[in-house]
What we know:
Order of helices and strands: HHHHHHHHHHHHHH
Oligomer: single chain
Amino acid sequence: MLQLFFCIVILMLNLGVYWLLGKAACIKCRLHPVLAEVVCIGFFAYFALFQIVAEIMIFTKQKLHVLGYVWLALLIVVLAVCAWIVKKGRVPQTAVYSPSVRPSRATRMLLALMAAAIVCECVTAVLLQRNIGWDFAYYIGNMTTSVATDTMYLYDGNSGLIRETMELRYALSSFYMNTAWMSQITGISALLLQKYVMGVLCVLLANAVVYSFAMEVFQRDRKKSSVLVSLTILLTLFWDVYDTSGQFLMLRGYEAKAYCANVVLPMAFYLLYRIWKKDYDLRNWAELFLISCASVAISMSSLVIVPVMTAIMLLAHMVVEKRRDMGFIRKAIYCLLPNVCYMLVYFCYEMEWLVVEV
Length: 358
């Protein structure tokens, strides 16, 4: 029970870190999104930064504790800078959204119902996380073995035996090593952290993306947005169809592919929708670039899906809106570039041109 209590504390700390990172980024970029989107931006910013540090450590075969201490020290510095930015930042009076405006009683009731629905979805997701399949057993094996041996991706997650070469299919993403370093530093089981902290976090972020998208579509109408989120939760809970994003969210929300299906892809689509409406706004492009940078760090399933979806949407926009200017094309290429670089590295690995010996 004590470890479960600490899991709740770590979940709250994670949300606080994401909010602070997102808030600082929004102030510097003059963005005024809703709170839910601020947390989402911070989540992607966290993994975009963590990926840089983690991949350097992984490819140079450093110890896990080195990653943990280096990242923790860097994170403290980054958060201190973010706190200074937030403290000094001032929201312009012309901001589109003013959270100081007290919502009506009906709005407060609908928001409360939405919050209750989200809590129910989190509890249901935790209770349904009983089926640990081969995939998750392998991922947990990678994390627990990394903690036990103080290494990263040098041992096989199933057998526990040391590998001959590093498997880049998993090592190119730092998602699970984020849980591993937290487990090593806190002493809490990686299994508990992954299933309960990351599982619940996936549910919260998925609903945050839906709420942000709804607020954009309904022009900041919190009533309609809260109703849409509640309906989405009902569909997820009662539409029991296998291999849908909702099933991944409820049964396997602790896996990276669940984050891809329920957080990364919806967030990317949301930003592509905003770009379709306002392709001249550089802030939308900057957010999309951030999502691209963090997508592979969060899930290797994003490797191809995110750039393909982005390319299709942007090409459709060019055809429909008859856009042919190089500025639009150049921004599109920048947003595709992170995933293309990862694909090139993975292609070299598959062709055995890039082999990292253990």
